[in-house]
Design a protein that fits this description.
This protein is α+β, with helices and mostly antiparallel strands and 131 residues long. The chain is 24% helix and 18% strand. The longest helix is centred in the last third of the chain and has 18 residues.
Length: 131
Amino acid sequence: MTLAACGIRPTSILTGAEAPTVSSHTLTIYLVTPQRDGLVRRTRDYTGTVDITTAMNVLLAGLTDEERKLGLVTELPTTNDKAVAVLNVIVMPEGIEPPTSKWAVFQVHCTALASRAKVAGVESLPDENCP
């Protein structure tokens, strides 16, 4: 019969810091219908810090595979560059020209309204262009 031991002596209980937490949110963005005659409200799960620019950056990142299969479109250019907030203004990434189509303008407008109302707790007036 053989016995083995590791030789590590008992220690007192060691306590650690608080368990890490993850902040998960649902963001609302607006995409254009396949017929390009209106907007569609879409939600996306997002983990991390959320503000209006987060929603705008999710919008600028483009469509998911599911949204493509549904035939939805965006009239905004897709980019991985980030929008930033400066005071109360959202500054779009370099190379993103001001939207020229009506639906691109409404995509930005409605996404910002939905995100601000949800994230900052600020009530916004309903907009008939934002379903």
